[in-house]
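Repro:
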Amino acid sequence: MRTRIIFTFVLLFPLINLAQNTMNYNKLTPEEQNVILNKDTELPWTGEHLNNKGKGQYTCKQCDAPLYNSEDKFDSHCGWPCFDDEIDGAVVRLPDPDGIRTEILCANCSGHLGHVFIDEGFTNKETRHCVNSISMNFIPAAQLKESKTERAIFAGGCFWGVEYFMEQKEGVISVVSGYIGGNKDNPTYREVCSGTTGHAEAVEIVFDPSKVTFEELTRLFFEIHDPTHINHQGPDMGEQYRSEIFYINEDQKKIVENLISLLKSKGYKVATKVTKATTFWPAEDYHQDYYEHKGTLPYCHGYTKRF
């Protein structure tokens, strides 16, 4: 029933939702739109970051998500900034329409970055992310200390409800609904709902750790869905609605395991899985900020104090 209703919504209002979703992103100039949205390429040797030797971090021009660290930048003499590694989970790879190259996109907003090439021999990582300068901002190391952000990825049933409650938390910068934990690149909602891809509906949260901690977000996660349910929340049934936390690093894993132990000591039969994060694939535009646009409250999530 839910899938049929959503499909009708997409047919009637795709352009409206696209406009609403992009309102949360930085305003782009026509030149930036041409590359980031229309997948064009800036002229070689013209980008402002090509010869930048400063220490710091490169972020997405459209959504400010961290993409690359300066220590992974190298000169390949190709005319564009190049990196032999990305920040974990920051970049999505897709087959390019030309059938030859591999396109790279910002995992947070799907903005076009450039292309990735392997086995060229430039560095021992055998990887070259060839990125348009116009797709990125650069944050110097000194400024980074003042504007550090972290990520968290939670799956707790329908991503609409989890997204809604997480966005209310002070210190949360952005919440994106999407898919993770499956066996297919860039899955669609229909494919995930078919139960054949293994993905979970999840949210990726970017937050300011000086205002809210990962532990606080994880506690909230356990209190806005039922972590004792296996593969369902409320009326939503299926593997894609499982309870699972995808940790970014070992510190996050330890925090999650400690909280699960605490819940079990309180008598909860916790079914939440704890898994190392893989690629997070942003969902279609009409899934983003769903309840905000619809003007209603979540139907399968609510707050229950458990700690």
